[in-house]
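Molecular record:
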Amino acid sequence: MIAHVNFKSGVPVYLQIVQQVKAAAASGSLRTGDALPSVRVLAEELRINRNTAARAYAELEAEGVIETRQGAGCFLKANGTSPLRKAVRSERLAEELDAVIIQAHHLQISDTELTALLAERLEAFRERQGLNGSSRP
């Protein structure tokens, strides 16, 4: 599930873990109900502090990506169960999109090229999810 962390990337380790779990869920390599490694096991595998692993899991739980079952561990939750209000989810996504737009500007990617690339990536995502041709709200 979590391949590695890059200590030199400038991205906090716990956020790298959060991003990798979300990517695994989006790609289908993690499915609803799948167990995640315990905090201790994750920390040992990645050679990180247990508090860092616990912080990543706490962030994932706060975002509604995983759920913790007392005595059983952490599991991937079903899609659409985010506890965040739609406005908060939209705001978080807008921040990410702003960063992409800035990056595209610096790479001299035109608005048309960026829009086409987004459409291409959405289509690739749908194909991986088995949603080819369907539109999501």
